[in-house]
Amino acid sequence: MKLKSIVNISAVALVAGLMAGCSDSSNSTNTPEMNDYEITVTNLSSNQPLSPVAVVVHEASYNAWEIGSASTVGLENLAEGGDNSTFLGEARTASSLGAESGTGVIIPGSSELIEVSVQRGSDLALTVATMLVNTNDAFAGRAGIDLSSLSIGDELNLRLPIYDAGTEGNNELAGTIPGPADGGEGFNSDRDDVNVVSRHSGVVSNIDGYTDSVLEQSHRFDSPVAQLLVRRVN
Amino acid sequence: MKTKSIMALSALPFLFASHFAAAQTVDVTVTNLTQGIFFTPLLVSAHDSSAHLFEAGQSATAELQAMAEGGDISGLVSATTALGAVNSENPAAGLLAPSTSTQVSGLDTGSNTHLSIVAMLLPTNDGFAGLDSWEIPEEAGTYTIYLNGYDAGTEANDEVVNGGGASGVLGIPASPGGSGETGASGVTTAETNQTVHIHRGNVGDTDATGGVSDVDSRIHRWLNPVAKVTVTVK
User: Cα(A28)–Cα(A30) distance, rounded to whole angstroms?
Assistant: First the structure.
């Protein structure tokens, strides 16, 4: 009974808000209704630590990347150096309702749960992205996962494919890979590759005849490289 | 006896459904998801439930072989047209470059209920991207399908770029991206599985003037899926 009356009140507030349009006459006694999500990423790779995960809940119209289009500088930073701050900043500027970073690197076989809360809306979508740190510019992620039909308590169980940011050639050379395989350079503003996003073709590694590669057999991967659990808790 | 009559009755609606299915109009968008593999002219074919351009685990037809080894879709066009198929030939007007898309707009499928798509992967000996007889939904909407890379099983994957595109002629017809490699000794002369199967990928090497392969292992590999197909049923 009490629950019901709360719902009714908030529905009235919603209608009032709609009628008021963009006016600033909001009712300060009503806090906005929030959608709360738990995003869990599990690293399924052999030996590719994943950089701190970028989690963005946004309006459906926002697109963080697209096959055949050039990476943003934020995506380039994330994919070459594992730094998601510019990527999250771009999302906040464009449309983001909630933009969070994981707390640290997710090593193979481990998981991290990241919480994100956003004001309730009708066309919410989720984007996640994380670098495979023992590569030149590979990242795992999904852009624009539809959250509009996810009810409280519902869960999406997805897998993350691997993309190539297209901003750094996959030369696998010493000094070019930021992860523990090399300890080399992360972000570099040069774009010496195809300069469009595609699916990744995998790494060659020195076990496969490419003797100049600093990567070895354990750094090879196939898609998918991670599990993504999306749970709506409120 | 009674069982039989029930079966006969219950089969009736299905017969009606297939015989009187309303003609559908579909838009088909094909995206090459790879970073370094080209698609030869695509064949997008709407046909009945019994037709196949290829079947995994079955030997390639001569028409499929011509497409997979040399990118020639004319044989498949003739064969499917004879079965009443509605085809879109070469919608990209040539090669579909890596990470680019092409669209077939307003394909009137007539009485045809299933969709198949093929295109050769370059540079490979007899690799192709394929969709085998996907049932077109009757409900209007947008549907997404991911295509794997197949091996026609008709030619050894020697990975020597020598212009050999005719059926039965060993070699890769062309490497459109211009890797410029020459002088390869050849990866193999045998084709272990001579039926249509999932392609194991290019081996490649990083030796521009020799080695076993004329394709570049850092550029001309791929992971599945190789293509994304979006079908919009009007």
Answer: 5
Q: How far is Cα B173 from Cα A31, in angstroms, rounded to an integer?
A: 66
Structural domain of B71:
23-233
As for the ipTM of the complex, it is 0.84
Give the phi and the psi of residue B87 in degrees, each rounded to 5.
-115, 150
**Closest CA relative to residue A109, chosen from A231, A229, A233, A227:** A227
In a domain, B89, yes or no: yes
Which of helix, strand or coil describes residue A74? Answer: helix
- Measured over all CA atoms, what is the biggest interatomic distance in chain B, rounded to whole angstroms? 75
The alpha carbon of residue B220 is apart from the nearest alpha carbon of chain A, in Å, by: 8
Mean pLDDT of chain B, nearest integer: 91
- Give the Cα separation of B81 and B233 in Å (integer): 22
The residues in A 158-217 lying below 8 A from B, measured between CB atoms, are 162, 164, 166, 169-172, 194, 196-202, 204, 208-210, 212
Q: How far is B22 from chain A (nearest CA, A)?
A: 30
> Domain residues of chain A, as ranges?
1-31, 32-232
The tens digit of pLDDT for each residue in A135-184 reads 999 999 999 999 999 999 999 999 999 999 999 999 999 999 999 999 99
Burial bucket for residue B29 (CB in 10 Å: 0-12, 13-18, 19+): middle
Chain B positions touching A68 (Cβ under 8 A) are 31, 99-101
CATH number of A32-232: 2.60.40.2130
Count of domains for chain B = 1
Chain A residue whose CA is closest to B221: A201
